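Input chain follows. Return structure tokens only.
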Amino acid sequence: MTDDLPEERAGPPPSAPDTVATLAARDRERERLLEELFHTHHMRLVRLAVLLGAEADAEDVVAEAFYELHRKFAQLRTQEAAVRYLRAIVVNLIRMRIRHIQVTRRAPEDPPVDVASAESAALLREDQRAVVAALATLPDRQREALVLRYWGGLREAEIADAMGISAGAVKSHVSRGMASLSTKLGAVP
């Protein structure tokens, strides 16, 4: 996401009263934009998190993504970059969560039971449950690519940006994931 960060700008420093007023106005505008982003994209990001495997942690993952956006908002080049940044944060946080669970399960202690939350069950219709169950069996990268492509409606370049991989790798993950899903769901390839 470094391409969304602004370049340093040189210029004369503003006077102290102008600086305070300008910073206060900038803070108010940032808060308004963040609130608008939250109301517009929160539920969609929660659904994305659930489909990527966050289950009961989906709300927490999205809240953390918005926290990170709040911290880095001034560094974004455009407001449109904020949605891409949020999506990439959600994908990365879920990857970290899944890795943590895998490491924890390898430990000799009893692993935590992964129980679907009421929220995740309520977000799905009956006809989607079989697909979501089959998605859960796919490797992480295939699942991420398929969810971002078919549920999120993203283009290959956007998926590559969110996942931090090349567009060619996205094509490969989507192709392999679709083949696996077809087999698992009993569809004719």
